Every structure is written in structure tokens, then in C-alpha cells.
Amino acid sequence: MRKINLKSRDLASSSAYKQSSGLWSVIVGSIILLITVSLYGVVFYLSKKETTTKEVLIDHIDKTKRELNKNKDFQEVYDFQKRLLGLNNILEKKIIQINILNAISENTLPDAVLTDIKIGENSKLLRVMHSTGENDKKIANVSIEAKFVDLAKVAEQLDAYNDIDINREASLSQGGIDEDGKIKADMEFLINGTSKSSGIKE
Amino acid sequence: MNAKLLFLPFSIILALWLVISPVKNMWTQYKSTKNEVIDLQKTKDKLDRGMRSIRKAVGEFQGLDKLTVDYLNNAMPQLKDDDNFVAEINKNAKQSGVLVTKIDISENSQGAMMCSKGDNVGIAVQNISNNNLNNCSLGVKQMEVVVDLSGTYLAVKDFIAKMDSQNRLVEPVQLLMSEEKNSGESDEEKTNNQGEKIINAKLQMNIFYRDKSGKVNLSEAMDRDPILKSLLNKGLKKDVIDKVRQVITSDIFIPVKVGAIGKENLFAETQNAE
What we know:
The complex is a heterodimer.
Chain A: H1 15-70, H2 72-93, H3 97-106, E1 113-120, H4 123-131, E2 140-148, H5 151-161, E3 171-177, E4 183-191
Antiparallel strand pairs in A: 1-2, 2-4, 3-4
Chain B: H1 3-62, H2 66-75, H3 82-96, E1 99-107, H4 109-126, E2 140-152, H5 153-165, E3 170-179, E4 198-210, H6 218-221, H7 226-234, H8 238-247
Antiparallel strand pairs in B: 1-2, 2-4, 3-4
């Protein structure tokens, strides 16, 4: 119970109580401040750590980029790869003409006399091939003008050329009789391609 | 009031201020830095992987023998190299026994027009997934060559075989062969000394050379350059080396060397040394 002064009606203050409350206030306040400062310290430390990590990474990246851009060996190997890719593009389209001539030789009748051979691209037929998705094949259009003793030999020759590695048959584009009385015939076929044309004229 | 009693509210206010202002700002900054670090780490890992791959490719390249590298350089040289190409045709002609009557070499105007349209970059980007770079994007230039020659069929055939397998890679476009048709000549005149028929041939082909390319910023090109991507992802395209060696089977060609030079009277005819 607290004492009261009846004359002045003042409550008697207890210095002991005040002292105790003040102490608790300081303790709790200090703890709160300590926690807050500690929190600040932790966040500061983490932030500093991340900043250091960032600087290290930036430094490493810069060094790596410099080495990538200045190293002569790297430039040389890049250039070499470029050359290889260019050569690959050419080799994928390259036709070996001697193979075609050999194939023609192997399948030409002994008594056929060739007067003209043409080996090349046939752009019109190649457009057909592209539309059917066959444009990854190497295509050579072969046109042959030859002389035969008779029509039977012409037919036999057409049949023989079909044995070459072609997936569409050889055909006769034009025929006639020359000044020596021999049958002159123009034949066409595509190595891995096709050719279609009209019949014989005598 | 006792100052000690005021300490608690004061410390609460101070703590609140510290949390609301400096700590919060620092936390925001920390989070932002952390995200940057994550991105930088990804960049670092990508660059490190790239370095490892390119070092491996350099090792493979340096492991190639000089002869292989010379073959590849001869197949598609850095310059037009007309002189060596003409010399190689001459060598093939002499060995085969044909007579070369004409050589025409010209830049391929159609090819140049296609490349200058700017299609090369677009096509290169478009074809990344197909790994199919066209020659425009690879800095490959094309020249058209037409060679007229005559000789017996077997000699011409031998010449064609040599052209197919010579050092300078050629892309045949057309081959025309026909028997000699000069109406003024008799049948004997259309044959050689051994009585073999003389054939006229016209070879049309393309040859290639590399455009002089500048230095490439490899670090910037990693994400968009398909050549670099192919190098980093799959290494050196060594299967091409095998393909080249299968096609180019002739001996390594020794480049032309200039002999004696200097002539006072440019129009004077000189006697060939016997």
C-alpha cells in the first residue's frame, strides 16, 4: 500500500519501484537495440559478401573475355572451322564426273559410237526434285548422242543405261538417220534423277 | 520522469527507424546484388565451358599434320590463287596428254549478287538449327572457270579424273564432249597419229577461295555466331577432313615460284631454250 500525505494529498513515491522499472526499461531497451544493430550487422555483412563475390565474378569474366578475343590460336581455329564448313558445303554438292563417265562406259554397247556427251545440271528437273524433297541427292543430267546400226541396238542401249544407278529410266529424246545410214539417237537420263521426252523419228 | 524509463520507448523508436530505413535499403540492395551474382555466375559458367571447348578444339587443330592442313588450304585458299590453279591445270594437261586451247576464269556475278543482298546473315541465322551455313555467311567466294581442250577420249577422260581429284577443289557444272566436227577436215585429219579420234571437250566448273576475314570478337559471338556454336558444341568438323582426303587424292601441289624476270623489249619474241 502506498502512503498518502493527507494535507497535500500527494502520493508517497516509492524510489525503489522507480529504480526497478528504470532498470528493466534500460535492459529491455538495450536488448531491442542490440537485436536491431545485430540485424543491421548481418545484413551489412551479407551485402558486403555479395558485392565482393560480384566483383570477383566481373573480374573473372573480363579476363576470360580478353583471353577469348586476343588469343591467336583461338582465332586460327575459328578460321579453320569456317574453312571446313565451307568445304563441306561444296563437297555435299560435288559430282565426281569420272565416276559418271566410268558408269557410262561400263554400260555402253561395244558397237555404239558416241558422238556427243553432256553431263551437267538440269535446272528444270532439279526444281522438280526440290519440290519432292529429294534435293539432298547429287544430281547429274546426262545427254548422249550416239550412232547405232539399227533400232534394236537403240532399244538395247536404253535398257543397258537403266542398269546404271538411276532411279528413273533412261529415255530417247530424239532419233534419226545420218548420212551413213546409221541410226542417230539422243538419250537422256539423270544419275539419281529422271528424264522424260518424246519418241523416235526416222 | 526518470530518464531510464524513457530509454525503452526511445530504443523502440530507434530500432523501428533502423529497420525501416537503413536495414531495409541494405536488404533490398543485397537482394539485387544477389540476383546480379546469379546472372554473372551463369555468364561465367558459359564462358568457362566455351574456353574448355575452344582449348580442346585448338588441341585437335594443332594435332593435325602439316600435310593435311596444306591440302585443306590448297582446296580453298585464302586468295584467288589463279596462278596456282592455272599451273595445276597445265600439269594435269601435260600428264594426260591433252591440249588446253582456252581457259576462262571469272568472278561469279550471280553468286556475288546473292551475297550482297544481305541474305547471308539472315540465312545463317535461320539455318542455325539445321547446322547448314551457306557459303555467303562463311565468306566463301566463287569463280567460274571454263576450260576448252582437245585430245583422245581416253586422254580427256584422264584429264577429267585429274581435275576431279586435284588439290584445288572444283565443283563441276557442265561437261561437254563431242567429236571433232570441222567440216573442212578429212576423217584422217580428225584423228591423231595413232588413228584415234580427237575429242573436243568443254569443262565448266566453279572454284572457290576464302574472303579475307577480320578478327572476330569471340566472347560476344558465343550466342549468335553459328560457326562458333558449331565449334563449341561439336568441336572441329573433322569428318570434312576425311571427305576432302577421299576426294582430293592427287599429290600435294607445290605452288608456282617466279623464275627469272625482267624484259627490256616487251614485244620482242624470245627463242625457247632447246
